[in-house]
Amino acid sequence: MLRLLLLVVLTSITLAASALWLFVVVGSFWVMLPLLAAMGLVFAVLRVFGLAIIPGSVLAIVGTLFAIAVVSFAMFALFSLIGIQFGRGLLALDDEASDIRALIDRSRAIELHDTEGRLIGILPANLDPARTTAPYLAVDIRDEEVPPVFATCLVFLEDRSIGSSWHVFGVDFYRIGSSVVSLGGAGGRRGGSGLAEMLERSLRVKMPNPKAGFLTEFTRKLASYQRLPAIEVIFPTERDIIRGASIHLPLVIGGRNSGWGDEIRGVALAALFLGKQVGELSPAEQALLAAAVNLPLRGGSNIDPATETTWQKARERANKCLTQATFRETFDPQGARDELPRIRPSPRFATISPARASTERLSGQTATVVREVEAMVGPQWSEQIRRISLNGAQAPNLRADFREAAREVESRSGANLNVPLWSGNDSALIYAAVVDSAGHIVASASNTDINIASTPLPIGSTAKIAGAVAIAATLPDVRSMLGAYARSNSPAVERILLRVPESNVAGAFDALGWERPSGQSARRHAAYGAVEVPPVNVLLACVAVTDLLYIERQSPVELQRLVASVETIEGERIGPKAKRLDTTRLGRMLNARTRGKAATLLAAPLGRNGTMRQVGVFLSQKGVAHAWGKSGTADAWSRADGASRAPTRALWHVGGFEYRGRRLTFLVVVASRDGRKPLGFVQSPALAPLTIALLTQALRAEED
Predict the structure, then answer these.
(1) Which 8-state DSSP code applies to residue 439?
(2) How far apart are CA 146 and CA 139, in angstroms?
(3) Does residue 361 sit within a domain?
(4) CB of 543 within 8 A of CB of 557?
(5) 489 and 601 assigned to the same domain
(6) What is the pLDDT of residues 479-524, one digit of tens each?
(7) CA-to-CA distance for 578 and 375, rounded, in angstroms?
(8) How far is the C-alpha of 359 from the C-alpha of 353, rounded, in Å?
(9) Exposed e or buried b per residue across 602-621, where buried means at least 16 C-beta atoms within 10 angstroms of its C-beta
């Protein structure tokens, strides 16, 4: 009876094993070949010697064989379910691939770089219409930009069998089988996820959970297997999978006070978290980040990497990779292992997100960036570009210093101000910039996203620059006029201009590129400034004046845009059209005979009795040469009704100087947001703290 029972059990096991063998062969799932070969050997021995088995051992043998049969059936059922999910995925391949491509495109951050190619941060999602609903943003990198040690450790630690014959649709069947078998072992559960599955999980914003139970993981995996054929279509090669993982896998998660949230996806942003560009990561840092894909590093001001569990585990795994993996690159593995405990996040980027870093870098000029990019690429710019390069190296503290200077102006002006200068719905509009002779931006700041630089504003006594050019080109001596220009005495300047032909004054306006209302007196505009000019046009003219007061200049003045260039998804680089001023006519008026007189007039406001004397003192202390300046106060409305004074619409400080052999030009303008609500009864000398804050940062940038 027992022998008959044993024969039945053996027959059942043989049939089950045969069915499993057939499934493995047909499905090309070679993971179970070693296990099935061993099982086949056991079956053969039992067939031959089964009848000679001692009856007392029959129950033990039957139990063992029954366990083997259960495992065989479990494997068969598991692989059948995986096969069914693959089949469903293949049937819906086009739809699944389309959905995944949409997720990838929506998560693609538009990067902000400086002109040297260094990553500053990412464009805030609220300025990127295609990604306003993206759950996370990741920085795209090319295949050659994937750090080599990172790629090696990623494969070594997470998907060592990638590219093998039992690696089908990104699923490592050998690893899955080992994971199932290890459930009953002393070693506990082994992970069964490959890079393709981890990539699919990340695209669906499912953070890794190492503590998840087998059934929870099994349910999640079954759902993800349906999408793996589409993942293979989008990432067909091993290098493609590694690149996708380098872009989308979460490597760091924001802790308390970090400001990052789920933004730290991909090696480029994780490198920024460490205070580096992706190409600057050391082998140890690359290994540490690769080791963090299953348990992302936790960051934040309250996190100590020396004791934080996520950092400790990542160091252990990175050490394993650096010890056991084979690298093509030449470096010192022992030195890299020694470096692991010393790796720390950047003090700045540990507490500020890439989007916030970009906002600070732009200093309120984000809308200007969008406007310039749209002019270059078109209204669908957010779907077509991957990278924006910005001109100028923005001083990190300029915005904060400007805010403090604005508060100082408010404190000094007191009740004379009707509106706050820096913040608030009705605050003034502030724009400031320092540029060199080539039009390169040295420093710039603004408190608004309104395009104030291109908005025509009344320039007030800044128009006396045109008067100075015309006077120098016409009158033989200007020494008696210095007081009028120092104090910006408009009636006195108007009387002086009566000695200058109207055509000469009009020619000065034209040479500066400043348009006047037709049919009105150029002399009066040069004295009182009742003319509106965009700040960018004023800055262009001032750059030309800074040069032509002391040297010959034949080339036109070009102001670089805030955006230096954009790079499309296809890799095409597109540059902006620069704003330009032809200096030919102005150069004829400011020639070797006249430029000294114009320089004398325009240096007067920086003198002891001038409207910009505080700025003049600052510049003299810094040792600059050939300084000139002009302030301007533009009234909100005319005083034709006989009023002694009118409220102020706009305040200006402009000028230029030479510092360490380089000529720089500056502009600061403060204007009321609404013409019906002027700034108050405040004059241009009040701008001195703002101008000094701007020039401090510009000179510091020159020194650096």
Answers:
(1) -
(2) 12
(3) no
(4) yes
(5) yes
(6) 999 999 999 999 999 999 999 999 999 999 999 999 988 888 999 9
(7) 12
(8) 10
(9) bbbbbbeebbbbbbbebbee
409-419 pLDDT, tens digit per residue, is: 888 887 788 88
Please, which residues have CB within 8 angstroms of residue 203's CB and are 6 or more apart in sequence? 100, 103, 104, 107, 248
Helix, coil or strand: residue 177: helix
- For residue 42, tell me if it sits in a domain: yes
**φ, ψ at 188 (rounded to 5°):** 80, -175
Do 225 and 131 lie in one domain? The reply is: yes
Cβ(528)–Cβ(492) under 8 Å? no
CA 155/CA 135 separation, integer angstroms: 27
User: The domain spanning residue 627 has which CATH number?
Assistant: 3.40.710.10
Matching residue, tokens 């690769």: 290
The verdict on 45 and 154 lying in the same domain is no
- List Cβ neighbours of 440 (8 Å cut-off, separation of 6 or more): 391, 392, 560
Last residue of a domain, one of 56, 73, 91: 91
Residue with tokens 């540990």: 350
Its domain, for residue 290, covers: 95-354
Q: Is the pLDDT of residue 257 over 60?
A: no
What's the total number of domains in the chain? 3
Distance CA 698, CA 625 (A): 15
Instruction: Find tokens 């559960």 and name the residue.
Output: 189
Query: Does one domain contain both 78 and 120?
Result: no
Which of 42, 72, 91 is a domain's end point? 91
Alpha-carbon dihedral 475, 479, 483, 485, rounded to 10 degrees: 40
- For tokens 């495109």, the residue is 105
